[in-house]
Design brief:
With about 400 residues, this protein is of the alpha+beta class. It is about 30% helix and about 30% strand. It folds into 4 domains: about 5-105, no CATH class; about 105-205 and about 215-220, no CATH class; about 225-320, Jelly Rolls (Sandwich), CATH 2.60.120; about 325-395, Phage tail protein beta-alpha-beta fold. It has helices spanning about 5-15, 20-30, 35-40, 50-75, 80-95, 100-105, 115-120, 315-320, 335-345, 370-380; strands at about 125, 135-140, 145, 155-160, 160-165, 170-175, 185-190, 200, 205-210, 215-220, 225-240, 245-250, 255-260, 260-265, 275-280, 285, 290-295, 300-305, 310, 325-335, 350, 360-365, 385-390, 390-395.
Length: about 400
């Protein structure tokens, strides 16, 4: 018996990464292994007999369904006798997967000291000072990180915080009542990868949608005695009303105080300003040298000197176009357009001829490739674009 191979296939099964051939091999190995060995892998993770019986039925159904899928793929290769053998094998290994089943379904029984090997394999130490936004990522308050692109299940539980995947780029974040496993002054960070957005539902049911290449840090004590977050990039906020605990967003040198409202907030590192655009309710914008309260339809612009300017002529359709999956420009320069494209596409550098004074108006879907967007600009102008190793050169 190749126990090392069996353990490897078991780990791959727990992460839903077995292909049909490996699943077949896994079943064959299970048939030959001693039953006591199987029980020794899982029995210590099961609290009592009632839990074991309940989980056994559910896990058996899960494995049986996989066997049915495998049979559909290889129906010409398996006869009725083989099928019976597989179901027998599935019944014998059901107990083996009880713990992985409980990890994602009955986590509250194990929330204190039962983080599993599967979870720790997904969560790793991060030695770099910040997470890159090439992938949608999470950095927990203890410095460990998680790449959402490789999360094989719909939810994960880690030291008092739960993350449920409600969609491809849609996460629901919850905290266990009364449980804070991190220092009160630490933060969890969530980052949207370039070329996509990330929607977060926070523990108080406030919603944040992050634009491409943006990230938000959420206090590890969020909702207990504060609702403090820190934004880099751009986000759209739908804040749940809570008069007792105001919602506070820090972005660059500005601080936004909210009770309950909807607003868009932009403060990318490459921009020399912060723009807070109010959709409904009211927000207070504060800096070290200035402060103001804006009304719906107004935009507060904070410059590098921390001075606040109010814009009453706001084009909401253009500001919120990113949430609709489009670029929308109104009489904009090529410098501005290339800056916006750089936030969505992997553009490392842009070189623009000084003689270009053209202005552009129009919209284009963000699902298009960069070369298609630039071709569209060429068709309505006499500009030429050359893409070379992440650098875009614009000439006339």
């Amino acid at each position: 018996m190749d126990y090392q191979r069996l353990n490897l296939l078991y780990q791959k099964y727990c992460t839903n990464s077995l292909n049909p051939e490996e699943f077949e091999e896994f079943i064959q190995l299970i048939e030959d292994v001693d039953e006591e060995y199987l029980l020794s892998l899982s029995a210590e993770n099961i609290e009592n007999d009632s839990d074991r019986d309940f989980a056994h039925d559910n896990v058996f159904n899960r494995i049986a369904n996989q066997i049915d899928d495998l049979e559909k793929q290889k129906k010409d290769l398996f006869n009725r006798k083989t099928r019976t053998l597989y179901y027998k094998a599935a019944a014998s290994i059901a107990v083996l997967f009880v713990f992985s089943y409980f990890l994602y379904t009955y986590h509250d029984k194990y929330k204190d000291n039962h983080e599993t090997e599967e979870v720790y394999k997904l969560i790793s130490n991060n030695n770099s000072p910040t997470i890159t936004n090439d992938n949608s990522n999470i950095e927990f308050a203890d410095g460990k990180t998680l790449d959402l692109d490789f999360l094989p299940n719909d939810s994960i539980y880690y030291k008092g915080i739960s993350i449920v995947r409600a969609g491809e780029n849609d996460l629901i974040i919850n905290k266990e009542a009364g449980l804070v496993d991190f220092d009160m002054h630490t933060f969890h960070m969530f980052a949207a990868k370039k070329g996509s957005t990330l929607k977060l539902t926070l523990p108080d049911n406030s919603i944040v949608q992050l634009n491409s290449g943006s990230s938000i840090k959420i206090s590890s004590s969020y909702g207990i005695n504060n609702r403090n977050v820190m934004l880099k990039g751009e986000g759209y906020f739908e804040v749940a009303h809570n008069k007792q605990i105001p919602f506070v967003v820090e972005v660059k040198d500005a601080k936004i105080n909210v009770l309950g409202t909807n607003f868009n907030l932009s403060g990318y590192d490459q921009d020399n300003h912060v723009k807070a655009t109010l959709i409904s309710g009211s927000i207070a914008v504060n800096t070290i040298s200035d402060k103001t309260v804006i009304k719906p339809g107004q935009q507060a612009i904070v410059n590098n000197q921390s001075t606040i300017h109010i814009n009453n002529n706001v084009n909401l359709a253009q500001i919120l176009a990113w949430r609709e999956g489009v670029f929308r420009f109104q009489d904009e320069s090529i410098e501005f357009i290339m800056s916006e494209l750089s936030k969505w596409y992997n553009i490392n550098d842009v070189q623009i001829s000084n003689s270009i004074k053209d202005k552009f108006t129009g919209s284009i879907k963000r699902t298009k490739q960069l070369k298609d967007v630039l071709n569209a600009l060429e068709e309505v102008s006499d500009l030429q674009f050359v893409i070379e190793e992440g650098r875009v050169m614009v000439t006339k």
